[in-house]
Amino acid sequence: MSISKQQIEKINTAFAKGDMDFIFDLAAKDIVMNEVGHGITKGKAAFMEKMEPMRGYKAEVYQVYRTLIDGDTAVVEGEMQFTNEDGLVTYYFNDWYTFKNEKLKNVTAYMIKQTQSK
Fold it and tell me: Which of 74, 71, 70 is nearest to 15 (CA)?
């Protein structure tokens, strides 16, 4: 299966808008999510539990710098900003998505919190 840029854009939009139903429908039963430096989540139930707090949580800024696709794997690099108790917080991300049978099988997410002024 080859993933399309349009499909990846839909996934990015869902994450940016906190549309967890879209993400959960896409997830394979045996999905594995590796949040590098923060742990690995295995299985759809654990993935849903981990991601549920993002429901309805909208990024104030969600910018994709580039998307690379090779067959059933896509890599998305970008920046997102949220407001929390510390004010506006910026994260830079690099997410790797792997698909199998049109389902999201693996997510490897690298997130770096900005600690310096731009």
Answer: 74
